[in-house]
Amino acid sequence: MQCLLTSLLALFMLFGGASAPALAHDKIEEEIYRAAEQGVASSLALAAHGFDSAALDRGLHAWYAERSFLPLWIEGAAPSKRAKEARDAIRFCSKDGLRPDDYFIKHIDALWHRTDPKGLAKLDLLLTVAVALLAADAIEGRIEPLEIDSKLFAHARPPRPNLGAIVKTIVYRQDIGKAIGESFPRHRQYEAMREALAQYREIAAKGGWQTVGSHRGSSLGPASNKADLAALASRLQASHDLAQDYVSRGSFDGDLQGAVSRFQARHGLPATGEVGRATLAELNIPVEARIKTLLVNLERWRWLQRDVAEAKEVLVNIAGFELFALDREEIALQLPVIVGKTYHATPVFSEFIRYIEVNPYWNVPSSIAANELLPKLKKDSHYLSSQHMRLYDGWHSNARELAPSTMQWSTISPRQMGRYAIRQDPGPWNALGTLKFVFPNSFNVYLHDTPSKGLFAERARAFSHGCIRVSEPDRLAAFLLDSPADAWNRERVRHVVADGARKIIKLPTPVRIHLTYRTAWVDQDGIVQFRPDIYGRDALMEDIVAG
Q1: Are 103 and 18 spatial neighbours (Cβ–Cβ below 8 Å)?
Q2: What fold does the segment set 209-285 form as a domain?
Q3: 226: which strand partners?
Q4: Which one of the listed residues 61, 93, 467, 514 is annotated catalytic?
Q5: pLDDT score at 150
Q6: Torsional class of 39: left (φ above 0), alpha (ψ -120 to 50), beta (otherwise)
Q7: Cβ proximity of 280 and 214 under 8 Å
């Protein structure tokens, strides 16, 4: 991730331009100076995040020059206690889904028992690079979202924190192991995901699970033979959906059906207890693929903004079709949502919800006007009126309202449609429903109500043009507006809506909203959940995080 390492190199340059050093008299300081001059990264052929050895060496030399080439990690003729803690942090970073080899653990181990000044100097320099890279990856993530998908992840993170200052603080901490650990997200969900990764790695170490049913048909049930039902039971035991002491009796009994239902529920399938084609497909995804999904989603947690601890937050999981309203990390609301179609993918970013529009107008986007409304108007010039929509000669403040029935729609092209503005009046017919939650952003994405309530019953709810439709917006509004100074509940929200007037209600305190893309998470009951990769984004990351 190029911009991440730019920040890392800024760390080395943080203290200003380095003047020519006075060569230290102590042997190890001399060797650190020589190694920095020669380039320890170049000598070991190290490179990271698209930066070559020369770039790493320039930053490293400038950083050590500022401290007169004094060692950071060596005491006497051996690695210090801090060095051992740093080495352990690198060794065990796999718990967070990172790879120790990315932080040069093999080179560090090869130098660890050297007692000569030259070897110790190289070790000191290398530990500095490794700790800085590990801390930077913990704080920001390994992967630059823009490099994965510039459309979906155009603003996956807010502006960078001052990594130079942060990593400098970590490098100098006496409790370096704790300092590195605190660099990772401390959200409960992240900790739960680390535990899930350990659990699935343990399953893999025991041999994973066997394929079931694929060679004997497209379903399993009471009519299946004993061998198939025993294989199903073994598979469900392997993923802890079925009790370990369960003994297959060769029948599709209540315990087995219950385990199937639990498996289905945590994979986003209807919990019928029946093993059909879709359930078989999920059962037969290898544990190694599940581990990759967990690794990808741990990385996404490292992308998330976490410089401010808010009492209230809203998290939308696009892939899971759900919204979570959090109060001090406790789930206050969990609501189904509708997200963008594959070709209108809802983007990933963080912002602040600042106000709620009650009984909103819907300003029809130009693309919808040209591609969806114009063909209907060519057939029926009264279509806009039937939908309580008004036509204007532009979006400017002095725009004149036009009579749609007098327009020569047959002569207007989709491109020419961009000259006109179309707005739908507030009311039960309005595409935005009765409530619109606004967090200003460059995508013009927002949360809103919808008159099409039936779509929330669908399992895969990717139906919108990119905005997010909320199933019970009055509950979300009450959550956002309620404060010690001004109590709100659903009844009060409904009363304001029933008035029929368009109104803007400013939140007492802006509430951060994260539009995220999670194909794996751990629910509030500690159950690991998986969902389909509806936009095909996991595959773009898997080779990088699991390679």
Answers
A1: no
A2: Muramoyl-pentapeptide Carboxypeptidase; domain 1 (1.10.101)
A3: none
A4: 467
A5: 66
A6: left
A7: yes
Mean pLDDT of 257-263: 97
Smallest Cα–Cα separation from 135: which of 85, 65, 75? 85
**C-beta of residue 387 within 8 angstroms of C-beta of residue 459:** no
DSSP assignment of 101-142 equals GGGTHHHHHHHTT--SHHHHHHHHHHHHHHHHHHHHHHHH-S
Give the CA count within 13 Å in the CB-facing half-sphere of 518: 28
pLDDT at 217: 55
In the chain, what are the domain boundaries? 2-184, 209-285, 308-361+428-516, 363-424
Torsion sign over Cα 39, 40, 42, 46: negative
Distance CA 461, CA 325 (A): 19
Each residue's pLDDT tens digit, 406-439: 999 999 999 999 899 999 999 989 999 999 999 9
Q: Is the dihedral of CA 219, 222, 227, 233 positive or negative?
A: positive
How many CB atoms sit inside 10 A of residue 520's CB? 25
Question: Quick one: what percent of the chain has pLDDT higher than 90?
Answer: 64
Q: For residue 155, indicate whether it is catalytic.
A: no
Q: What are phi and psi of 184, to 5 degrees?
A: -75, 160
The CA-atom distances, in angstroms, between 36 and each of 9, 101, 107, 123, 131 are: 15, 22, 16, 12, 17
How far CA 219 is from CA of 213, 530, 545, in Å, comes to: 7, 21, 34
Mean pLDDT calculated for residue range 485-507: 96
Tally the C-alpha atoms within 13 A of residue 411's C-alpha that lie toward its C-beta: 3
Are 123 and 111 a contacting pair, CB within 8 Å? Answer: yes
Cα–Cα distance measured from residue 428 to residue 497, given in angstroms and rounded to the nearest whole number: 11
| Top-ranked range on mean pLDDT: pick from 16-30, 35-49, 98-112 | 98-112
Separation of alpha carbons 389 and 426, rounded Å: 10
Q: Give the model's pLDDT for residue 305.
A: 64
Q: Where residue 326 falls among pLDDT bands split at 50, 70, 90?
A: very high
158-163, long-range: CB < 8 A, 24+ apart:
158/305, 158/350, 160/3, 160/7, 161/307, 163/4, 163/7, 163/8, 163/10, 163/11, 163/136, 163/139
Q: What are the DSSP calls for 158-173, one per residue?
A: -SPP-HHHHHHHHHH-
| CATH top class, domain 308-361+428-516 | mainly beta
pLDDT band for position 43 (cuts 50, 70, 90): confident
Give the model's confidence band at 349: pLDDT under 50 very low, under 70 low, under 90 confident, else very high: confident
- Read off the pLDDT band of 50 (50, 70, 90): low
467 is catalytic: yes
Which is catalytic among the residues 93, 448, 465, 514? 448
pLDDT of residue 10: 45
Judge whether residue 25 has pLDDT over 90.
Answer: no
pLDDT at residue number 21: 38
